[in-house]
Amino acid sequence: MQSVSLGQVKEQSYTMKESLRALKTNIQFCGDDVQTILITSSIPNEGKSTVTMDLSRSLTESGKRVLLIDTDMRKSVLIGRLRAKDRNGGEIYGLSHLLSGQRKLEEVLYTTNIPKLFMVFAGPSVPNPTEILDKKYFGELMEFARKHFDYVLLDCAPLGAAIDAAVIAKHCDGAVIVIAQGMASARMIVSARRQLETSGVRILGAVLNKVRMKKIGFGSYYGGYYGGYYGSYYGEYYNRDDRKGKKGTK
Ligand SMILES: Nc1ncnc2c1ncn2[C@@H]1O[C@H](COP(=O)(O)OP(=O)(O)O)[C@@H](O)[C@H]1O
Ligand SMILES: [Mg+2]
Questions:
Q1: Ion ligand 2, residue ranges at CB < 5 A
Q2: 237: helix, strand or coil
Q3: What is the pLDDT of residues 65-121, one digit of tens each?
Q4: Protein residue with its CA nearest to atom 1 in ligand 1
Q5: Nearest C-alpha neighbor of 156 from the set 140, 147, 146, 167
């Protein structure tokens, strides 16, 4: 196994930590048959990678062994954002190396300086991510991951742009949709949900992210634009949406 050090691990605010704790609890209460979870959204920049990383860390703090797989081979940001460095000074290999048959599993699996957190990075962008995800290597990786980790979190490409998440969903026990306040339209969110449903994966719930938090009085804001509000509306969002559907207001 390779080893990487993560130089940039942001401290979370109190609100963020509380919201994350709620999300983690919700996931743990989904049952012990929910071990492999994909995290997606309808459009880019809603916070999938952020939520996946924060949730992974939070689960390790509960003593879980967690593998984070960056499957977004179109827009891979984690290596750069986390300032990941190979401990031996070498190149960091990733999922695209594995799925294209260039590297073996043990060459793309990294331990990190966060105890119990393991990572598979995305690797260089490839022109055909959906196609290589459908090959046997991905299934083998998931089989291995199930045996060796308590949780496997998969950071996916957004559903609006590609069908990667639907392909990945076949290998997962559950899916979480990240919805950033005021970004995707209701129509896009509903369509993302349908795409996931078609793939047959269990939708565990939604995370409302980037919530604008208003202070009472003086009209100022606190927490900044990105309040962070993980975990709320978990599962609830869709019920509201269904009711709307019945009234024919969609
Ligand atoms: N709750 C949050 N609070 C502050 N910044 C956030 C939050 N969620 C996401 N961001 C920021 O928004 C941008 C997009 O997030 P990212 O996780 O890369 O989205 P995605 O993986 O869905 O494309 C990043 O700059 C990230 O730091
Ligand atoms: Mg991302």
A1: 48-49
A2: helix
A3: 999 999 998 877 788 888 888 988 899 999 999 999 999 999 999 999 999 999 999
A4: 228
A5: 167
Strand pairing category for 84-86 and 2-6: antiparallel
Q: What is the CATH number of the domain that holds 237?
A: 3.40.50.300
Give the Cα separation of 92 and 80 in Å (integer): 11
Q: Which of 14, 45, 76, 121 to mutate to test the pocket of ligand 1 (most atoms within 8 A of CB)?
A: 45
What is the phi-psi region of residue 55: left when phi exceeds 0, alpha when psi lies from -120 to 50, beta otherwise?
A: alpha
What range defines the domain where residue 106 resides? Answer: 2-247
Q: What is the DSSP string of 201-227?
A: --EEEEEEES---BPSSTT-BSS-S--
Quick: pLDDT tens for 176-200: 999 888 889 999 998 998 899 999 9
pLDDT for res 214? 53
Q: Whose CA is nearest to atom 10 of ligand 1?
A: 47
Query: How far does Cα 87 stand from its chain's mean position?
Result: 25
- Give 6-21 pLDDT, tens digit per residue: 886 777 777 778 888 8
Considering the chain, what is the average pLDDT of its residues? 82
What's the total number of domains in the chain? Answer: 1
Q: How far apart are CA 215 and CA 227, in angstroms?
A: 11
Q: Whose CA is nearest to atom 17 of ligand 1?
A: 47
For tokens 């940001």, name the residue.
Answer: 77
